[in-house]
Design goal:
With 499 residues, the protein is mainly alpha-helical. The chain contains 21 helices and eleven strands. It binds one RNA strand of 76 nucleotides through α4, β6, β11, α12 and α18.
RNA sequence: GCCCCCAUCGUCUAGUGGCCCAGGACGCGGCCCUCUCAAGGCCAAAACAGGGGUUCGAGUCCCCUUGGGGGCACCA
């Protein structure tokens, strides 16, 4: 809010795997800042590494971001004036800028083999030196370079990092970061296959696309000084850099490993956005949750819809320290947002889960059920356990559960019969018609309402935990309710005679 | 090993020298409500990593230690 200048920001993932919570948050923050300032949000695909390229990754990414509710103004799927938006399609652009750096004497050709490089590092390792390129190809004559390139010798282009002095770059959250140049490598800018590496490609694109704020993960902090060198070598104006904290595993000890990520889904959680969707988390809940991991709002508000976040987001309130993922808080936020949904909306969202569970659901009935389950579920998926019985023809109660608390099977059967007679006499069963007479019945029989209602609950819903009894009966309908009570009486009688 | 970053309740965090014997949220415990389960309401327990400075005064500034994280690739 304090920054009302329209920003140009970008989310620039590499399509190498599944879309993670951390990516979701980075994308979200970029989006929020763009929308808040009336700026531009660009999606750029950083696919310069063909070895790690996963074809489905970009689709999953786009799906997940859209699911979260984000939209972008420029990108590979929507186009825009700064395209192409896939780096693999911008190869010639990078080559051109690499050559410019060479002519500026800020980059050079390097012919060292990967074997020689590995050997070099081994030596540096034992001598406890920084693992940086030793500069062998730094001072090759123009003639020699030309000869070897012509001869078709494999080569890369390296940045000529100054050997003396230091560089100071500025991160919005951390302030100035100064590093001595001797610890910085002569990073490779262009690989031997002619494709640029991130360091060059991202800086060139950010410049060409007019990016004003680079909001990215803190894994880039260590190469940040190099990026500063590249930008300054070209004489470009520097965008504002914001490095977001990393997510730690729930224990707070370390980052989530692949194996641990896979393990998570066993208990209904995941760090992958598409998994969360399938698990029954809703985008409002997930967005609220990740927004608050590393960002806060001063008045202690924690409940935010996407538009609230757009209005209230602020770079200044970002927190640079790593944050442990807290799934119980996700459950809380998800439940919170489910409860604020309109009943019809909830019904619609829950429907695919019933479909997937093999239920045949009637739309009208589902709309009636929605408000009943709304305060009782934390994920959409929970609806099946809570309300599946509404959509079954028959219900199979556990016979033992049909017996009322501190009662015998015979007593329970008797109570069920008396209840049956009352309910059968009603024109229609609902809270208004049924509750009062059944309470009186319980009272007359010397039972707690809980004892009687418990028997009926298990009989009618087939489960000991359910939405409120009479509301449930109203949805199920008189005929089915009576049938189920009759079945329960039979089961109780059978238990009684069995001893 | 080398470089960089971070450090308040179990977790997410508020806190930018006095308003803090540290506030909120999740979770946990208790109570209320209640036909079950939830939801909701109320109450409680729970933290400034350690050591040095600076200052009249430090969670807040500086240094060291410790701990945690990231990076050290022809990955991003």
């Amino acid at each position: 809010m304090e920054n009302n200048q329209p920003v140009r920001v970008r989310f620039a993932p590499s399509p190498t795997g599944r879309t993670h919570l951390g990516s979701g948050r980075t994308a979200l923050y970029n989006y929020l800042l763009a929308r808040q300032t009336g700026g531009t949000f660009i999606l750029r695909i950083e696919d310069t590494d063909q070895k790690r390229y996963v074809p489905e990754a970009e689709q999953e990414l786009v799906h997940s971001l859209r699911w979260l509710g984000l939209s972008w103004d420029e990108g590979p799927d929507v186009g825009g004036p700064n395209g192409p938006y896939r780096q693999s399609e911008r190869k010639d652009i990078y080559r051109q800028y690499a050559e410019q750096l060479i002519s500026l004497d800020r980059a050079y050709y390097c012919f060292c083999s990967t074997e020689r490089l590995a050997e070099m590092r081994k030596g540096q390792q034992v001598r406890k030196e920084p693992l940086v390129y030793d500069g062998t190809c730094r001072h090759l004559s123009v003639a020699e370079v030309q000869r070897r390139v012509m001869a078709g010798e494999p080569h890369v282009v390296r940045f000529k990092t100054p050997r003396q002095g230091s560089i100071t770059v500025r991160d919005l959250l951390r302030g100035e970061i100064t590093v001595e140049n001797r610890y910085l490598d002569d990073f490779i800018l262009v690989k031997s296959d002619g494709l640029a590496l991130y360091h060059l490609a991202a800086m060139v694109d950010d410049h060409l696309m007019g990016i004003t704020h680079v909001i990215r993960g803190s894994e880039w902090l260590s190469t940040f000084p190099l990026h500063g060198h590249i930008i300054r070598a070209f004489g470009w104006t520097e965008p504002i850099f914001v490095h977001l904290s990393v997510f730690l595993k729930p224990s707070g000890k370390g980052k989530m490993s692949k194996r641990e990520s896979a393990q998570l889904i066993q208990d209904g959680h995941s760090v992958f956005l598409t998994d969360l969707e399938q698990l029954g988390y809703i985008p409002e809940g997930v967005a609220n949750w990740i927004a608050l991991m590393g960002w806060s709002y001063d008045d202690h508000t924690e409940y935010f819809c996407l538009q609230d976040l757009v209005d209230k987001f602020s770079l200044q309130k970002l927190n640079p320290s790593p944050a442990a993922i807290n799934f119980t808080k996700l459950d809380y936020f998800n439940g919170l947002h489910i409860r604020t949904l309109a009943a019809e909306d909830l019904a619609e969202r829950v429907r695919p889960f019933f479909d997937a569970g093999g239920y045949v659901v009637d739309s009208d009935k589902l709309r009636q059920v929605a408000p009943l389950i709304q305060p009782r579920i934390t994920t959409l998926d929970d609806a099946l356990d809570m309300a599946g019985f509404f959509f079954k023809d028959e219900v199979q109660p556990n016979p033992a559960e049909l017996i009322g608390k501190k009662m015998t099977a015979a007593q329970s059967a008797h109570a069920a019969r008396r209840s049956y007679d009352i309910l059968a006499s009603l024109a229609e069963i609902n809270v208004e018609t049924a509750e009062q007479p059944l309470r009186e019945l319980a009272d007359g029989m010397g039972l707690n309402p809980g004892q009687l209602f418990g028997i009926l609950r298990v009989a009618v819903t087939g489960q000991s935990v359910s939405p409120p009894l009479f509301e449930s009966m109203a949805v199920i309908g008189k005929a089915k309710v009576l049938q189920r009570i009759q079945d329960a009486i039979a089961a109780l009688d059978a238990m009684d005679s069995a001893g």
